[in-house]
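Researcher: Please predict.
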Amino acid sequence: MTMQRFSNDDLGRILRDCAGEADAPAWDEDVLDTAFTDLGYDSIAILETTSRIQQEFGIRVEDEAVADLDTPRAFLEHVNDVSAAHSE
């Protein structure tokens, strides 16, 4: 079975939706190394995002891990690592 990779577009879409920014422009690669706080997202938006990822993709991100995931790149890498570990 081929594992679908969680993408920057997926993260941007879910974050914008959780923050009530459905009309915000799509993300590009420039945001990957920008802190979530600098992008305007607080810890509540990130925690809600992890819940949505579990609902949509079946990937569980532990709440304790979220505190260390301060950029989209770190978040994406963690989510994809968790997904890969559970699909083996």
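Model: The first helix runs from residue 8 to 18.
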